[in-house]
Please model this.
Amino acid sequence: MMQAAINYGQVLFELSVPETAIEETALALRTVPELKRALNSPVVARSSKHRVIDRVFPVEIRTFLKVLVDRRDMDLADDIFKAWRACVCRQEGILEASLYYVTEPEEEQLQEIKGMLRKKYDKKDVRLRLILDQGLIGGFIIRVGDVETDWSLKGRLKELEQKIMRR
Model:
């Protein structure tokens, strides 16, 4: 993620724009890619872009979007919203993590994993993103930021291969 997107996300967080307005905007830009392309296009006049923003998006976020359009940074929107979510999670004491799996874990297993992560990272809650990855063969990988814990069969086989190669 670019530093500019992180900075914009922090500004968006500090502006205290309601979460519903941000989520609506993110959804609109994600589901209608033509809208994002038009707002980012150097061919479309700035005044036209501002009119589109006034018609389509919630009032609370319009000024912010106009700044993005004026600075030609609309292509950073997805990363800006991710950075904003990270700020919200940090403030609320929520840990964001990803769980890569082959077989979807049962609810009890998910609760155990969340409990372990809460304790390890001293957080109130854990938002666990579940991602199917058939390439793991079996087991799972937990990724928190840039820290990865690999309990997959693929990872174990790779470890074994490295040990054999060192001999």
In short: DSSP finds eight helices and four strands in the chain. Helices lie at 3-14, 19-31, 33-40, 46-56, 59-70, 77-92, 107-121, 153-166.
